[in-house]
Amino acid sequence: MKLLMPVEVVAARHATPRVLHLTLRPTKRAAFPAFRGGAHTILVLPDGKRRLYSLASDPAAPETWDIAVLHEPEGNGGSAWLHAEARPGTRLLASFPQQNFALAEGAARHVLIAGGIGITPFLAMLPELERGGADFVLHYCARSRAEAAFLPELEARLGPRLVPWTDGRRLDLAALLAGARPGTHAYACGPARMLEGFSAATTHWPDGTAHLEHFSGLRREEAHQGEAFEVEIASTGEVLPVPADRSLLEVLRDAGHPVDVGCEYGACGSCLVEVAGGEPIHRDVCLSPEARRTRMASCVSRGKGRVRLEM
User: Fold this and answer.
1) The CATH number of 220-309 is which of 3.40.640.10, 3.10.20.30, 3.40.109.10, 3.40.50.300?
2) What is the separation, in whole angstroms, between the first and last Cα of the chain?
3) Which CATH number does 109-213 carry?
4) Beta strand segments in the chain, E
């Protein structure tokens, strides 16, 4: 993938028994590139695995980045490696910040909803909200206080602007989001079930006022399965078959068409291609409905019949 930076772990500590809080610094530049709260980076591990992590530090302090890694025993090894091996001095590669999730400009009020490790993008949004004197509230859902990373710090910092939902209390998304007040924007990041509930609860909200961030998409084996289709390269007329057991991304790269690669499960947006015609079958979790009119994620999405690409 393009625009990778060598980074070094300078601090590693547990925010909870299952959440590892890492601080990174760039090794070949004085500071990281600028970003806004809600951005993410893709870490490249020594074995080549790529993992997407929200930046959890203040964008106004670019000398270091903070990320938080949830240990997922049922995953494919990325979080397990970081929990076991990441310590001060560990060297990795990180992508430049990528921004698919950000605070809306000019919003009168912000309603932030975090589930578990989904708190991380909001940690970088809070300084922006606080510096701007914004009207906001953060709802934080977790199975228990012990599993709610950074909760004590957030309680001390935010006071009544933080509403924790822990120790068996459940947030009723439908009730919270029943009324869409003018100027209010809502944001959610967390497990798939929460995001499904958020999407259902905001169907009546005006377009562009409900925002969500996914941490995961299709599993790799699913991403490489689907109906066979064809792609036509608009600039040359070349037609490439995409078999049922291969991704569009693989086919394009093998044919010599440079497409960036990141997470390869439809969450980061690195591999987007422009659609000039045809009907894509979107399977990503990173594009808005508006963006899907003209783009598709080549790592997971497919097409009906033939799709024409602006390449």
Assistant:
1) 3.10.20.30
2) 18
3) 3.40.50.80
4) 4-16, 19-26, 40-44, 50-54, 65-70, 91-95, 109-115, 136-141, 162-165, 184-189, 210-213, 229-233, 239-242, 272-281, 295-297, 302-309
> 49: part of which helix (H) or strand (E)?
none
The residues, any chain, with a CB within 8 Å of residue 276's CB and separated by 6 or more, are 234, 308, 309, 310
Burial pattern 277-292, b for ≥16 Cβ within 10 A else e, equals ebebebbbbbbeeebe
Segment 157-184, tens digit of pLDDT: 999 999 999 988 889 999 999 988 899 9
Read off the pTM: 0.82
Both tokens of 134, joined, read 């914004």
State the Cα–Cα distance between residues 184 and 285, nearest whole angstrom.
23
In the chain, domain spans = 4-95, 109-213, 220-309
pLDDT digits (tens, 9 = 90+) for 86-120: 999 999 999 999 888 899 999 999 999 999 999 99
DSSP state of 61: -
